[in-house]
Amino acid sequence: MSRPRAERTLLKDHWVVDPASRRAGVATVEVHSGKIARLEWRDGIVEARRTFIEGAEPGQKDPTKMILPALVDLHAHFRQPGAGASEDVASGEAAAAHGGYGAVALMPNSEPAADHPALLRELVRSDSPLGLTLMPIAAATLGRAGVALSPMGELAAAGAVAFSDDGSPIADLSLFRNALISAGALGLPLIEHCEDPALTAGGEAADGFVATSLGLKPWPAVGEISAVVRNIALLREALRDEPRARLHLTHLSTATALDAVRAARAEGLPITCDVTPHHIALTDAWIAGDRRWAWEFGDRRPAELNPSADAYDTNLRVCPPLRNAADAAACRAALRDGTASAIATDHAPHSREKKEVEFGLAANGIAGIETALSVALAAHAAGELPLSLLVAALTTGPAAVLGRPELARGLTVGGAANLLVVDRAANWTVNRATLVGRSANTPLLGRKLPGTVLLTLINGEVAWQATMSS
Questions:
Q1: Domain boundaries in the chain?
Q2: Which of 274, 290, 346, 423 is labelled catalytic?
Q3: Its pTM surpasses 0.85
Q4: Fewer beta carbons within 10 Å, N or C terminal of the chain?
Q5: According to CATH, what is the number of the domain 8-67+415-465?
Q6: What is the dihedral of CA 345, 346, 351, 352, to 10 degrees?
Q7: Local structure of residue 218 (DSSP, 8 states)
Q8: 166 is catalytic
Q9: CATH code reported for the domain at 70-408
Q10: Please, what are the averages of pLDDT over each run of 10 residues along the chain (470 residues)?
C-alpha cells in the first residue's frame, strides 16, 4: 500500500526554521512531486539569516504554524527482534513520524543483541510503508557481554552507522580501547552508556533527598561521573594508535559529567554527547508526584516532599535516573553552549507487564519519541532554549554525531521534501488515544503539551497527518 503523495502542497506564510541553511522567518514552501519546488522568504535571505543567528524567535504577530526539517534521533529502541509486545519496527516508525522524525538510529539492545549482520538487518526490517530512514547501530561486543569485540568490519559493511553496547557499559579497559580503535578505523563512532555497575547496582533513583525520602535505593551520580572520566582518558590513549577514533557519550545526566565533556572538547578531543528530553525537563521530584517542569524549581530541590497519588509512577524509572533541578539545568546549559550536540530521545517502549509492578522491579525506560519535540518546545516557551538551537539539536546536531550530514540537509529547492508542520500554539494531551506507538510508558500521560505535529512528509509523502480528533 502506497502512501498519499503531496503532489502539490502549498504551505503559505509559515514560520520556517532551517539549521542546515541557518535561516529562519516567515516563508512559503511549495512541495511538488516529492521535492521542494519553491521556498520564498518573505523578508529576504539576508533577514532570514539574521533571524536565525538571533535565535529564530517568532514575534507575536508571526504565524504559529512552523515548518521544520524532519527530525533526526540518534538513540531509540524499536524492540525488534525479540520484544514485539512492547514495540516493533512498524509501530516504532509510526510513533516516530507522529513525533516529526524522518530518521532514527536504532540501538542494538534487541533479543538477541545485534552483533551479527543478519541480526543487524532485523533492527530496521519493516513492512511499514512510511519511508523513514532507519539506521542500525551494531553491538560493540558479542552479545553486548563485554568479553570480546563483535565482528565490526562485517557489521559496518552491513550498514551499521555506529557501535554501542548501550545499557551495558564496556567495563574492560583494554576492550573499550580496542573498540574505540576498531570503530575509528572504520570511520564510525563508539557510543557509550556511562555507568559503573559496581557503584550503581540495585539503584532505583538518583542519590539524594528524593531517594532518601521515598526509601528508594540510590543510583549515585559518581556512577556516571567516574565512567565519563575513565572513558575520556581511554579516548586519549586510543588516539595515539588511531587518530580517527570518535567517542559519543549518550544520555548524560549530571552537571559534573557534562563539565568533564566540556573540558575534553576544549582540549580538542573528538568527543560528543547528548541529553534526553526527560533529563532536561523532569526531575526526581516527579517520583513523589511533584509534576512541575525542572525549570520551575530554579536550581533548588523541593523544600519538602508530600507524596501524592501519582508517587512511584514506574514510568519514571529510567537509566540514568532523573536527577535534581540543578542537574537538569546543567543539561540545558550543555545544549546552549554546545557541549551537548543533540537531544536524543532514548525512546524505550515497554509493555504494561514490565511497568505495572513495584517501582524497583520495573524495566528502565520512557517511550519518548512522540513527545520529544513538545517537551523541547515547553523548554523553549519557558525561555530555556532558543528555537534555533532547539531545532539544530533535533536535526543537524545528531546528524553530525553520526557523520551523516545528508540526514539533515534541510529545506532546499529541488531537495527532498522531508519536513514537518507543527503548530506551536496548539496543545495536545498525551494519552493512549493520542499516542500511536505500541507502548504508552510515559510519565506525561494526561499532561497537556505544546506543539501539535500536523503533518510529517518524507520524500513528499505523508508519513503522519493529524486528524480533527488527534
A1: 8-67+415-465, 70-408
A2: 346
A3: yes
A4: N
A5: 2.30.40.10
A6: -70
A7: E
A8: no
A9: 3.20.20.140
A10: 66 98 98 96 98 96 97 97 90 97 97 96 89 97 98 98 96 98 98 97 96 96 98 98 98 98 98 98 96 87 76 97 97 98 98 95 97 98 98 98 95 97 97 96 98 97 80
